[in-house]
Amino acid sequence: MEERARSCLLRSKATLEQDIKASYLMDHMVSDGVLTNEEESRVLSKPTRREQAAALLEVLLRKDNRAYISFYNALIRESYGDLANLLHSDLPLLSPEGERSFADGVSPSVQGILSEGGVPQRPVVFVSRPALLNLIREKLYRLQNTPGWVTVFGMAGSGKSVMAAEAVRDRALIKECFPGGVHWLSVGQCERADLLVRMQSLCFRLEQGQSSEASQRPPCSVEEAKERLRFLVLRRFPRSPLKSGLSCVCASLFVGTSFEVPVESGLDEEKALEILALYVNGKPHKLPEQARSIVSECKGSPLVVSLIGALLREFPDRWSYYLRQLQKKQFKRIRKSSSYDYEALDQAMDASLQVLEPEHQDLYRDLSIMQKDVKVPAKVLSVLWDLELEEVEDVLQEFVNKSLLFRDCNQRPYHYYLHDLQLDFLIEQNRDQIAELHKKLVRQYQKFYNERPPSPGDIDCSYWYRFLPYHMAKAGLSKELYSLMFSLDWVKEKAQFMGSAHLINDYVEYGEILDKENSEVRLQFQEFLSLNGHHLEQRPFPDIVQLALSQPACSEVYRQALMQAQKRASRGRLYLDWVNKNNQDSLSLLVMHPHQGSVYYAGFSKDGSKIASCGANKALRVFKTTSGEKLLELQAHDEDILCCSFSPDDRYIATCSSDRKVKLWSVERGALIREFGEEHEEQINHCQFTNTGRRVLLATCSNDKFTNTKLWNPNKPTSQNTMFGHMEPVNHCCFSPNDAYLATSSSDGTVKLFEVSSANEWKSIDVNSYFPESDDEIKAIVKCSTWSADGSRIICAARNAVFVFDVKTSDMLLEMKTSRLSTVQYCHACPNSSLLAVALSHYTVELWNFETSKKKAECNGHLSWVHCVQFSPDGSLLLSSSDDQTIRLWETNRVHTSSAAALKRDSDVLFFQSDVTIVAPDSRNRLQVRTGLAGAVVFESEELPSRIRCTCISRNALFVALGTESGTVQVLEVPSGKTSQTLTGHTRTVHHCQFTDDGETLVTSSEDTTVRVWKWRTGEYLVLEGHKEPVRKFHLLNNSTSSHLFSWSFDGTVKVWDLNRGQMLQDLECHKGAVLSCDVSSDRHLFATTSADRTAKVWSNASWEMTLLLKGHKDCVRSCRFSWDNKRLATGDDNGEIRLWSMLDGALLKICSRDTKDSMDSFHGGWVTDLQFSPDNRVLVSTGGYIKWWSVETGEALQTFYTMGANLKKIHVSADFTTFVTVDSIGILYVLKKVEGGSL
């Protein structure tokens, strides 16, 4: 060994002795031929792990350069990357011959790339299959110029995974085909939630080193994960991946050519003999005569041959004995999952178990409860067996040595797994004990984690969060399962670790068991997760107790949250109870469960009397709109049905499927009328009939590359026209109201309009160009499009946005943007109004006005992904279909008004002792007055002809005032609602109004640039003129000696007025930009202004000079507030950032802000519109897209309350800082009460 390498070993000796496990490393070194079996035995004879490590290093120091490199490679393979780094700089150089002979040419750099990507290591004994390897590699090289993938398929146990992994163990192949690295993802046959976990893991791996904020949050659904993986793979790895086995994931992610490589069911005789020879350290031609018979009995299975080889390594004189064991064929499977011959495997497994010590046989039997394709950390088995971790690892090493178990060394601590066939054997052998074995695991978990649950930060504990409910269900421990899953603590821990999707799946998966205890509670937890899942995906992780306090008071979720909130409040934590929350049932008119599986599409008949639905269960179903009564059910296709459509006369329904077929059915007879020719080569995503019966046509669109949009005459078996233009999958198609045009939405980022008569492309709209972050490779997928009722606008959905385009000019008219953490799945325009229904990935349906770009309502209730929304032909009903297997029917008007709670944000609030009075306009332009914590309505005015833009209430609560867009001001009596006075004088919109303390004077400001001071009982008024731009607001100062008013405007000035005389006292040019807010200190010595020029200024009320200029905000400074002790000023900007400044010297004290932007691309969900300090100046409350409470001392967030809508205008706070009132953008009223410690 070179002196440099030897010195490095000696320098690192102490560190290596402390950390390595020699037995793991020596397996690789023996395979490399640098260590003999005798040397291995001598090292293992040492009593402790550290002494074994020291002995191995002593052996190494007496060897050559190849031993040093073999030791280095073993460290990498066993995930001792940190220790390998100690040796890397002193690696000796080998001759080319030595390099080729070493470890089959797998260099340390290649091994490092494969280990990082999770590619499985070679088996302990490995023989190459050159012809098969060359075939796989040849197919991979063909992907350099052709998009697609390679599928390696064959019988169970034939070595597919080993060969797939070996194929990429090649430096040249990695350099040319996988320049960004190889990432291995094991999928197998798993539930949707487990599939999501695997996809999240792959996303995490691919996102390493990227700065994208989106990468901080794992995808919360399989569909979102597909989109994320598609984005990541196309960006980082333009060439497509290798697929081992038949993976449903990759087929969904990539479009292109599939190259198939079949793996023979068994090894040929020579290769099998080579494996046996390696196990017994001999030569194939020198093996005893029984060797060929053993190979024959093993049917060439690499797994069975390895099991026998491991036995012969330990008992080299038992060739005849193990041959007889294989020939017994005493095991008969009760059921077989395939045509694979299990008998040889069963005999080999039985023989391997017989040589284990009795107590180890019992431990191995416990592995019967493992799941296929799930790797279990040693720590879990340590809990199960109640043994020290080191003892467990020694036992597992024995199982690995005997090929009874496999070890994943790509992650530390190591994870262990069984081959599917081995697990089948164990389950068959222990079928009567399975429930007891599951129960044993649960009991051991309860014993080990009796005091506190596993830490979500411990990667070893992920197994418990994923599979504990599974083991409880399999053990029949229903009471334990209830206790676990009806616990808010469990929900918090698991959601924090794995997100909400896996949790929701648990409530569905084990719903039958949970419903025996309490179906209502199960639904309450499931609904809580579905409505708040998008919040639970955010980082930092939200306070789940606060989220749960928004649940109905009758909910078990709310009951547990309130108990925890009271307990924590007694220790100084802040929690808010939404005391006026709506306890009514869901606003959906009807909930139907038409399918066992996801409902991909549902649509109304043309007369609105029937609904047709289809989905993952391959069935078409028709039922009555009024009652949900089933009229027709057909098993219509061989695979998922993706869409269905009524003909214009409602006599027929067309269906299309991922089986590439289009079919036409009679609604009356339920019979197949026609199966159209299979002209699409990929799955058909959407189908739609023309709207009128003048010329009936059916349009279909698919994932085909060129012929992806077709028109069919229902009376002919072949297509009438093919529309060319898109080069990527077309996801949706729809006819214009007059059937003159067909709109197609594609993954190429465009919407195209085709003339139906000629099938020629008329217009193309590049939707992708409205996403500046997109690049040429990763287009914004356009999910769907819909026409306005008059056909003048086309509306389309892509990512988290909906765009409205003018059909004639192709100009973008407006954009509606939803949460950055959501994607729009579908949209549909109401046929007789400007309402647009939008289906979002966070289980919600939203209603928007596409004329004004304003959100009007939210429809909550679905428990999973919403695939489709559609209005009825008359617009009175709205349906939505979902992955939760339901269709919900909503009354458009009821949802539109009720979910908005009929209120607008232009509100005023009066607090009196423990009571609260709220005045606000509603969506029908009436003035409402509500009182009490429940928000009971005192009166509603008549509908006004001009929109109400501001309101206020007198301090004695006897009168309310309102200002309108026409400039009229009204004063009404409370509680009668009688109009006391109508005041005219303003010529444009009245933006703000306020009573003086005595209630006799009313002050108003207007778009007409004036402020008016009214003696409202008599109608007398003063006009305060001087501003050149609209006066949006003013600040009233009342005391016994003087009445002053500060007004500010977009003209950049603040003016100070004497209210009694109407005289301007000061005219201050404060900012170059518009003045957006102003506040006066409680001692009246100072006032502050903020502006669109991104600055705040503090002024002296004595000298009227600026005393402080506050710079640092990066956007318009929207709001400001002095603390009650006048020592601080808080300012908030349009980027969502809040800054706290010292009023002594203008120093920046704290920045109150999240670490990263939220789902609305802001630090506060939008503009910071209002700020209020607590009386003791220790807490600051702010409004933006939601409400936040901050510690003034530390700048840290104390609590967050997420409203249903966003864009809050103001927060009204009681004098004792215990009650908070606001109205959100969709009109929901929130009366929040601080939770006190102890019982309520």
From TrEMBL:
The domain of life for this entry's organism is Eukaryota
Q: Where would you find the membrane-spanning parts of this chain?
A: none
| Ranges for the WD repeats | 634-675, 723-764, 859-900, 983-1024, 1024-1067, 1068-1100, 1110-1151
Its annotated compartments are:
Cytoplasm
Is-annotated flag, keyword Iron-sulfur?
Answer: no
Q: Which InterPro entries match?
A: Apaf-1 (IPR017251), APAF1_C (IPR041452), Apaf_helical (IPR042197), CARD (IPR001315), DEATH-like_dom_sf (IPR011029), NB-ARC (IPR002182), P-loop_NTPase (IPR027417), WD40/YVTN_repeat-like_dom_sf (IPR015943)
CDD domains per UniProt: WD40 (cd00200)
Q: Which residues form the CARD domain?
A: 1-90
Asked if Cytoplasm is a keyword of the record, the answer is yes
Q: Which GO terms describe its cellular component?
A: apoptosome
Q: Where is this protein chiefly located? A: cytoplasm
A Pfam family name for this chain?
A: WD40
Quaternary organization:
Monomer. Oligomerizes upon binding of cytochrome c and dATP.
**Functional summary from the UniProt entry:** Oligomeric Apaf-1 mediates the cytochrome c-dependent autocatalytic activation of pro-caspase-9 (Apaf-3), leading to the activation of caspase-3 and apoptosis. This activation requires ATP.
Protein name from the UniProt record: Apoptotic protease-activating factor 1
- What is the originating organism of this protein? Cyprinus carpio (Common carp)
